[in-house]
Amino acid sequence: MKLVTLLTILTICAPTLVGQDTLLPVDVCLNVGAKPIVQRAEMIVSQIFASVEVQIVWHGDMRLCSKPSGGIAATMLEVTPPSLHKGALGYASPYEGWRIAIFYDRVLSAAPWSDPARVLAHTLAHEITHILQAIDRHSETGIMKGCWKRADFVEMQLRELPFSEDDIFLIRRGLEMRSRRGTR
Question: Are the CB atoms for 93 and 74 separated by under 8 Å?
């Protein structure tokens, strides 16, 4: 009887355990210290990507994510010039394949009634996705929507914004191209 129970538990848990071993690693370097908001955002970003079987490996040393290394270098701007990508919370260089910038001051003011760590996490995930997909495109809904509205900010306070099926396909295709080039 105990053996049957153990086998049932292992059978139920097996897909979860197998899934954890198949996460595809992506190195991301972030140029900020140990700010609690940033640390929480990193955890949320990791959860967002784990949902599509991608493991974000965080580094504080930007040299680990230079162009030849294949990692993604994320720069956080504390004070964003008003003329730089007006209205955007960040930007990516998907055709270069390794650089993103987050406008930290804009993230903090984007939704003053929101948890800034959740807004930061979604912004980071959005820009990282542009790099992983290796194209400049947006979805109609979810995390890759081109312009988040109030309802999107409210939703991201309750749960992570989802990836569309097209987003997931493009992430996987981009990761496959990166692995052929030998980059993470």
Answer: no
Alpha carbon distances (Å) from 40 to 34, 45, 46, 121, 179: 10, 9, 10, 8, 29
Is residue 63 domain-resident? yes
- Residue with tokens 């993230």, as numbered in its chain: 107
- Give the range of the structural domain holding residue 156, as residue numbers without chain letter: 25-179
Q: How many domains does the chain have?
A: 1
pTM, whole model, 2 decimals?
0.85
Which CATH number does the domain housing residue 125 bear?
3.40.390.10
Joined tokens for residue 46 = 């990791």
pLDDT of res. 74: 95
Least confident window among 1-15, 61-75, 101-115, 127-141? 1-15
Q: Encoding tokens for residue 102?
A: 């987050």
